[in-house]
Amino acid sequence: MKRDKAEAIRWAERAIANPPNDWRPIEMQVFFGRLLVKSDNPADKARGIALLEKLAQAGPANAKTELGKALRARDPVRARTLLEQGLKGDPGGVIPPLADMLINGEGGSADPKRAVSLLSGWRGSDVPGVKGALGMLYIDGKLVPRDLKKGIDLFRTWAGWDYDARLKLMELLARNPDQTIGYPKGILYDAVEAVELGEPGAAAALIQLKLSQNEQFRDESGGCQLVMQFANSREDFVIRHLAECTMLDGK
User: Fold this and answer.
1) I need a labelling partner for 240 at 20 to 30 A (CA). Which of 24, 49, 162, 205 fits?
2) CA–CA separation, 240 and 234 (whole Å)
3) pTM value?
4) Of 144, 242, 236, 226, the residue nearest 192 (C-alpha)
5) Nearest 5°: phi and psi at 122?
6) DSSP string, 52-72
7) What is the percent of the chain with per-residue pLDDT over 70, rounded to a whole number?
């Protein structure tokens, strides 16, 4: 199904009254609050913060995590404090945003060494989001020695869970054609599904990957079919490849 914030919020609110069997009611409320604060509707966002404020007082540790992330832009000092408080109970959720704040010096002094320690430590070593954040450090090569292969392998784990990370992974593979990943068919399946659903950026990312020099994904015919499929949109990613595909078709 195509992502839809409003529908997700509507169904999550209904689920509070009848949560899944393996969810406690309070966990469903935290999930609902997390969705509300991501809403484009200011009223929903305010409602979500109010709910997370209440839950953070006596609820599960991840309520502080979600509240901290929601307050990061408007009150970084308090956001960082909340994340620090939630670190023990919710390390997997806290570590990626807290490490990013430590690197950027948000809400307090910068501490990149501690950020690297958190991301590479045992507490979040099996969490996809933590692996993704650590992978980006290896890809960037600023705080740790650059290791593109290791970085992409770590980031690939997070890409299996997060749509935006999947787009980033596809971009990395297209720009670094010597890099390979395990189970490339999984990435292609998710990419094609996203295009069929009309997800933002999906067609551009898949076209770029299919027309790249990466042997795991290069598919000139399939890439050009997509270009022609979206030709009427006249979007930038289509225009960039129209000439290339016209030449290939002439051959």
Assistant:
1) 162
2) 10
3) 0.92
4) 226
5) -75, -25
6) HHHHHHHS-HHHHHHHHHHHT
7) 98
